[in-house]
């Protein structure tokens, strides 16, 4: 779901950069306040794993493919939507600058879509759904799915504002593809949460309901 | 499990995925590209045949429409190393994974208050 440079006019791209920078500042404040010495290597490993698994595009029907984003996973494991923003900002920076995946002028939009929306929908979706249904892994699956789907819908709206996609077609195509790709996001989020909870239940910020 | 052990196992899993990714990853366009090609009629919505000429024209059309013609040379474009085939792709994803590890560690270290 990485938007390339050409898809958004420069002026609008700048607006998304401003929004992104506000959330990046809040994410750095989260890191300063909440990230202890003990957690730093774990965040780094999580980010490396998210980068690697993002490189693995899984085929879905209709001649397209999808990969996980990982903001929901980071937010759930580290107990804050800002953890998703923190990790995804750095992942998207490396992907854009070093690998040409996602543009540079539009990186703010990509950070908003995948980092901010992914982190917030992932975190609050998880805590909210877990509160209702009680099962942490089912909640992680649904929150992971929703984080990707809502990111894609917002992306379609941004591209409609940009004049790149007509709104109805953009919503239909992006929505359909990402409703399926979201299953990959949800599945990996739930499995990774299970593995991390089994190995290190203590690092989860909200261990209640997560049983190893 | 101790932190050191957790980190080592985590890095090994990430590297295994990184090495396997170039062999397993689908070459089909991702959800956004696919939607783009379909909307610009270079690819059917529910089909996989991509018309390369129409795809190229679509890219020119969108640059003309948005006026954003910014471009730059990435070091390892599309997760590959220019001149190297699959080996280059493996190295690109492995380098990226290790770079993430170091970068996130460094930024986290700088951001976090030492007394946390």
From TrEMBL, chain A:
One of its GO terms (cellular component) is plasma membrane. It is found in: Cell membrane. Keywords: Cell membrane, Membrane, Transmembrane, Transmembrane helix, Transport. The chain crosses the membrane at residues 6-28, 40-62, 68-94, 106-126, 138-165, 177-197. It is a multi-pass membrane protein. The keyword Mitochondrion does not apply. This is Cobalt transporter CbiM. InterPro entries: CbiM/NikMN. Its main location: membrane. Gene3D superfamilies: 1.10.1760.20.
Automatic annotation (TrEMBL), chain B:
It is found in: Cell membrane. InterPro entries: PDGLE_dom. One of its GO terms (cellular component) is plasma membrane. Signal peptide: none annotated. The keyword Phosphoprotein does not apply. The keyword Membrane applies. Its main location: membrane. Pfam families: PDGLE. Residues 4-112 form the PDGLE domain. The chain crosses the membrane at residues 7-25, 90-108. Keywords: Cell membrane, Membrane, Transmembrane, Transmembrane helix. It comes from the Archaea. NCBIfam families: PRK06287.1-1 (NF004930). This is Cobalt transporter. It comes from Methanoculleus oceani. The lineage of its organism: Archaea, Methanobacteriati, Methanobacteriota, Stenosarchaea group, Methanomicrobia.
